[in-house]
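User: Show me a protein chain along with its predicted structure.
Assistant: Here is one chain, sequence first, then structure tokens.
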Amino acid sequence: MFVAWRDLRFARGRFVLIGAVVALITLLVGFLAGLTGGLASQNISAVLDLPADRIVLQQPSTGQPSFSESSIDADAVADWKQAPGVRDVIPVGIVQSKAKAGGTTAGVALFGLPHGSTSSTLTDLAPAHADEVGLSAGAAKDLGVKTGDRVSILGARYRVTIVGGDAWYSHTPAVVLTPSTWAKADRAMGGDGSATALAVTGDPDWSAVADRTHTAAQTPLASLAALDTFKSEIGSLGLMIAMLFGISALVVGAFFTVWTMQRSGDVAVLKALGATTRSLVRDALGQALVVLVVGIGLGMLVVVALGTLAGGALPFLLSPLTTLAPAAAMAVLGLAGAAVALRNVTKSDPLTALGSNR
């Protein structure tokens, strides 16, 4: 690393430029990853929070199951409850509507859940009485209410008994009613009052019961495909992130290619003096790693700072998946680009690289 350190010390401008480019690309990737995570959370967090080994939805005669179209009748619910190996079945009603408090109106996702179900952020919001309602933190914030206040849903008034944590469904905050109250609200909106989904725990013959009840049983993660907006939204943002990773590899690789060409004379001298290819690769990759670590570190610091500031205004998620994972991917891609750039120099003949004028 002796030559590499001297190069870093005496060619500061070149490395500041490369580091700034790496930092900017890291900022773009990290911020987009945070936004993707935040948007995904506001789309699916309530579904993932359901206490279930499988989410059961109605299986349509054609096409795939959908939360917006699913309706599970009482016979199917009873069949699932009686199936051998099933420990618990929670009927879940889901429909999107509006809630009003004072002069404020907000879009909400109405959930019908029985009181006293297995504890989770969502089920803990379930009220005990028909004239009560539980609000997620997002719903309470949008409506500007707290525990004890009154909210109006489809013309009926309810008392807020609990304000819990964040729970979102299709970008609307969750509001939880008793199953009977939810059924009335669903009928008022043109539905039949039947449960939208079942949260099933246990170890039955999933396929056999699903076939018998004309339903589909999927893990909570797999059931996200039944959310109408999830695949298109995450697919688009994921493609953008993948393209940014590809661009970062090309840009960093191009920088290191030019950089390596400028060092070809130094590398040739070292080879002529007996330096091994392994030591030259270690020298160059070590130099590239220093630049990448500094650039990626600065970029991630800005991402964390902006994410913290924007958390209240934007759906931004700060987690290892949206910070450490993109940073590691950037480092690997940058080193891969640097390694490709070294190939021609390390395999060249020292006399040829030095040129006839030397």
